[in-house]
Amino acid sequence: MIELSVSLASNGAAKLAGYEQMLRFGYTKNRGVYRLAVTASGEWEGLAIRCFWHVPDVKDPPSSLVADGYVDVPASVTAQPGNGCITFEGSDGTKTVTSADLRYRVAANSGTEDGTEPEPGTPAWQAFVDTVHTDATAAEQAKTDAQTAAQQAGASAQEAGQALSDTITAKEDALKAIGDKQTAATKVVDTARDEALQQVEASTKAAQTAASEAATSAGNASQIAQEAAGSLQELKDGIAAGDFKGEPGNDGKSPVVTVTDIENGHRVSITDKDGTKTIDVLNGQTGKTGATPVLTIGTVSSGDKPSADITGTPENPVLNLRLQPGPQGPAVALDTTLTHEGEAADAKATGDAISAVKVRQNILVGTETGNPIAVDDAFSAPLCGLTVYGKSTQVRTTGAQLISLNDSYGVVTVNGVTKTPIGISAWKLEGISKEDAIIYPYSSLTFLGLSKGDYVFSVFGTSKAKARYTIIGKGSSGYIQTGHSQKISIQEDVKLTFNYKIENGVESNGILMIMLNSGSTSLPWEPYTRGEPSPSPDYPQEIESAGDGGSVVVTLSDGNGKTQTLTLPTPTGLPGIPVTSGGNYTDQNGQQWVCDEVDLERGMKVQRVNAVDLSTCRVTAITKFTVAKRLSIRLPLYGRDYKTEALCNKLPFIVSFDKDTPHFYVDKTNVQIFIPIDAKTPEEGEYILFYALATPIETPLTPDEIAAYKALVAYGPDTVVRASDGAGIKLDYQRDVNIAIKKLEDAVASMT
Questions:
Q1: Calpha distance 142→148 (Å, rounded)
Q2: In 3-state terms, what secondary structure has residue 489?
Q3: Helix-, strand-, coil-residue percentages of the chain, each rounded to 5
Q4: What's the rounded Cα separation, in Å, for the pair 539 and 651?
Q5: Residue 277: count of CB within 10 angstroms of its CB
Q6: pLDDT for 555-598, tens place per residue?
Q7: Over the chain, what is the mean pLDDT?
Q8: More confident site: 628 or 167
Q9: Which helix (H) or strand (E) holds 387?
Q10: CB neighbour list of residue 317: distance below 8 Å, 6 or more residues apart
Q11: What average pLDDT does range 251-273 have in this prediction?
Q12: Do the Cβ atoms of 54 and 89 come closer than 8 Å?
């Protein structure tokens, strides 16, 4: 089922996702295909919401309830072509809110009738019946709750009353939802409705009875409580008035206690109304001095049983315990990187870190970015910082290339020169020509037909070969050297061919690429894409990232043969998207990138770019145009505005939400995918999108990776740093103070 998102907001606004202004329900006689996902906010929150359908040219169908945020589009709405509208109403029994009209369209078709059109299905009415049964169940539960409440006296009576109110409300809502339907289908619904209503009525009466009983019980309890309170007050008043005093007793006599000394003790005398009694308390005898026990604890060998005994004398006993040693405890994890929480720091690593800080006090730190990086003022010391940045590239074309045929001969060698095709209109040449080597890349010389007009033939690459064009039948031709071009004016339809020549003794090693474009200005070389921009559904262009091979290798050298290497594992590559602003890396050409990075000084890998197969994503809306259809897909994007850059393997990035050609663009929350009108929803592996994450993901590096980084030492004074696969680099290094001062002195001298 296709879900279309609708948002109900303050002031009665009813909005669609993205830039949509109208719901589109496909073609006439669709049934059970569309449903609305309704999001309510503001004054709509907590209200029961109904959809009122206003269809063209026929009587409006009954309204539909929005259940759990969803409502199916009735068959009666899609039964007629044309433009209609939907009005939403929300109510809680006291407050009612209505929306503005939300337009929809059902496109016309020629129909599928064979003379006996069946009645449309009624999924919405079945939903109403289910709602009534649900209300009946709720009423039964209210009855049970009321009966229980009756046993709890006064407070429970209030709960029973609320249950009664809820039951009556459920009944009214169910009656309102059912409505009046004059078709054959309503007979079934009416029967189910009547049965449900009977249940509601029975439950309501039971709830009322229970509530009455609860109220009666509460009244009885209240009366008993009042009587008890009166009795209690009567008791209090009697006590205060002295009504409960007993007869006066005899006068008492307080006892007197005296203590006197006697021989070897004391005598205690107690005199009361009955006379005097005495008790003698004698002193005890001093006992013998006790012995101080001696405790010894030893061990037994592994496998022996523990034992204990007592030696010595009764006056000086000795307790001997022999215990078996316990197993060795687990090793304590030590953090050698000083970056992990919950682990003890390694003493040596801590000392080394403190020493490094002391060493780096009062030093000059230089920072350079790019790839490669070359500095001539480095001090031979460990690096102060090293960050490796990702990069993703993709071939993009404008459709200007007119040469469209592949090399039909493949790899051949002519007069010592070997030719290898590397794509359409591009070759790799190797070897030194023994004599003039003329190579024809095609089996047919008349390969390209041109209509009259102006054209430019250009040669690109690094090879020293010369490319020759020939206009068949006109005797017009010329050899063009690499890096040059020739304007060709054609007055009538002709055919054109070409070949290339490596002169005797010339080393041809390098790449040769040819380009033919219309107009009078030479355009940059690009592969042939049928006169249309690429990437496109017909001419996909794969996205290649640094580290796609599983690693990025960083090399430090002194320029004279000394090298150090650092290999960074990149199991998912190290991607990066070129952007106009908001990037975390700027290369030596001034281009900004949002890209993954490996910060070795911090010990973190930071993921900022995600690659996603669009077949795994949920399509939230579909809009059809003449040539293309737009699919809205929500992703956790780092979206700044509707011009947010991204990369796709089969679609060009074009900032337009209504352009009727295959393309895509990204706004703050959604990716808008425009695919051919007859194309299926993205299938597995078909459309791959690289986009910037809304929240970067940080992952700690391994201790081995950090240790390998800390082992790197800059060469003094010359250090060159390179990264494989075109990855970017930021280098922080310790500058040689003497060299830095000398550069400053030279700069001052040049100014004076």
A1: 10
A2: strand
A3: 20, 40, 40
A4: 9
A5: 11
A6: 999 989 999 999 999 999 999 999 998 899 999 899 999 999 99
A7: 78
A8: 628
A9: strand 385-389
A10: 291, 293, 294, 310, 311
A11: 73
A12: no
How many whole angstroms separate alpha carbon 161 and alpha carbon 208? 8
φ, ψ of residue 417 in degrees (nearest 5): -110, 125
Rounded to an integer, what distance in angstroms lies between the CA atom of residue 40 and that of residue 54?
A: 21
Question: Which of 178, 196, 188 lies closest to 134, judged by CA?
Answer: 196
Between CA 106 and CA 624 the distance in angstroms is 12
Separation in Å, CA 293 to CA 27, 309, 744: 102, 13, 83
DSSP 8-state code for residue 713: B
Q: What is the pLDDT of residues 599-621, one digit of tens each?
A: 999 999 999 999 999 999 999 99
Confidence band (pLDDT; 50, 70, 90) for 342? confident
Max Cα separation, the chain? Answer: 159
> Tens digits of per-residue pLDDT, 645-691?
899 999 999 988 888 999 999 887 889 999 999 998 898 989 999 99
Residue 425 identity = S
Could you give the angle at which helices 184-241 and 153-178 cross, rounded to 10 degrees?
160
Cα–Cα dist 307/704, whole Å: 49
Residue with tokens 């004391």: 266
CB atoms within 10 A of CB 373: 20
153-178 and 123-150 are packed helices; what angle lies between their axes, rounded to 10 degrees? Answer: 170
Decide if 192 contacts 185 (C-beta within 8 A): no
Residue with the two structure tokens 């007993």: 246
Q: Is 705 left (phi over 0), alpha (psi -120 to 50) or beta?
A: alpha
Measured CA to CA, the distance from residue 403 to residue 528 in angstroms comes to: 6
Identify the pLDDT of residue 250: 59
Say if residues 499 and 439 touch (Cβ distance below 8 Å): yes
Mean pLDDT of 629-635: 91
Residue found by looking up tokens 């078996």 in the block: 324
Closest by CA to 6, choosing from 122, 101, 124, is 101
What is the tens place of the pLDDT at every residue in 44-65?
Answer: 888 899 999 999 877 889 999 9
pLDDT over 70 at 450, yes or no: yes
d(CA 160, CA 123): 35
**What distance lies between CA 674 and its chain's CA centroid?**
23
The per-residue pLDDT for 170 is 42
> 468 near 500, Cβ under 8 Å?
yes
Element housing 257 (H / E): strand 256-262
End-to-end CA distance of the chain: 80
**What token pair was written down for 475?**
């005797």
Beta bridge partners of 574: 546
Closest-CA residue to 126 (of 75, 60, 199, 79): 75
Highest mean pLDDT among 229-233, 296-300, 329-333, 714-718: 714-718
Helix H or strand E segment including 690: strand 688-700
What is the residue whose two structure tokens read 């009697």? 238
pLDDT band at 224 (very low <50, low <70, confident <90, very high): very low
Pairing between strand 334-335 and 344-345? parallel
Provide the pLDDT for residue 52. Answer: 94
| Percent of the chain clearing pLDDT 90 (strictly above) | 33
